[in-house]
Design a protein that fits this description.
- The protein starts with 5 loop residues before the first helix and ends with a helix.
- It has two domains: 6-119 and 211-236, no CATH class; 133-195, no CATH class.
- Helix 2 packs parallel to helix 4 (90-113).
- The protein has helices at 6-21, 26-42, 47-70, 90-113, 118-128, 133-162, 172-195, 214-236.
- With 238 residues, the protein is mainly α.
- Helices cover 71% and strands 0% of the residues.
- The chain is built from eight helices and no strands.
- The longest helix has 30 residues, at 133-162.
């Protein structure tokens, strides 16, 4: 998954998300979640980190289950007896459906976020989606400033503690100096980029071009054509 073109991966996972939004069978949602977890582990994501990421997802899924179980519109939830997940209870069906959707959407989101390099993603969007250079360079510059902002935030809190002053984590006394320095950094970065010849209208060459390979096309076709076709055939035969 890490070697796939981010633009193709984005389109493919978005197509799967839209497909799941139109289905009411929890089997598809749970299958998408299971496949996402398998691909994440296969891509080198540590199991401990993945479990920590899934804690808020589990809480949200539990909340959606009880919400769907408690509040069910009468007569609007058909119950299928041929699915191993169901026990003939419309409330239970609604709760499982809501739970499974949270898991599916979270799994697909993590699959994209944890297996995609942000620089590679911006370069891919710029090449395949024709993202303007000014937005691409702006996003890359902003991500480069984030570590400095975190470091400055910690330094400011340490300075307040050294003087014996207690402040809240989102206190204006902490955020005001950070805002001033962020503006200064952005101005310095803008001047530096202009001095190095960065312009939104300038033609540029690439040392490592971002291309769409055969595996990217196969993955996109699988998610955008084969899966919807399989879902349609499955539901049309029921």
């Amino acid at each position: 998954m890490r070697s796939l073109n981010p633009a193709c991966k984005f389109i493919s996972l978005l197509a799967v998300t839209l497909l799941l939004a139109g289905l009411r069978d929890p089997w598809w949602n749970l299958s998408a979640f299971a496949v996402s977890m398998f691909l994440l582990l296969l891509s080198g994501v540590r199991l401990r980190s993945l479990l920590l990421y899934l804690i808020p997802v589990a809480l949200a899924a539990a909340g959606m289950f009880f919400t769907g179980y408690r509040f069910t519109a009468e007569g609007n939830m058909p119950v299928r007896s041929d699915t191993f997940l169901l026990s003939g209870d419309s409330n239970l069906m609604n709760g499982i459906t809501q739970l499974s959707r949270v898991l599916a959407y979270a799994g697909l989101g993590y699959l994209f976020a944890l297996t995609t390099d942000r620089v590679f993603m911006i370069r891919s969007f710029q090449k395949q989606f024709h993202l303007p250079q000014v937005f691409a360079y702006g996003l890359l510059a902003a991500w480069g400033i984030f570590p400095h902002m975190a470091l400055e935030y910690r330094r400011t809190r340490a300075a307040f503690r050294a003087r014996g002053i207690r402040v809240f984590p989102i206190s204006p006394a902490l955020l005001a100096p950070l805002l001033v320095k962020s503006v200064r950094w952005s101005e310095e970065l803008s001047i530096a980029m202009e001095s190095k010849g960065f312009s939104q209208n300038a033609e540029r060459t690439e040392s490592t071009p971002v291309r769409v390979h055969t595996k990217d096309i196969v993955f996109t076709l699988l998610c955008c054509i084969m899966l919807p076709a399989a879902a349609f055939m499955t539901h049309s035969t029921i």
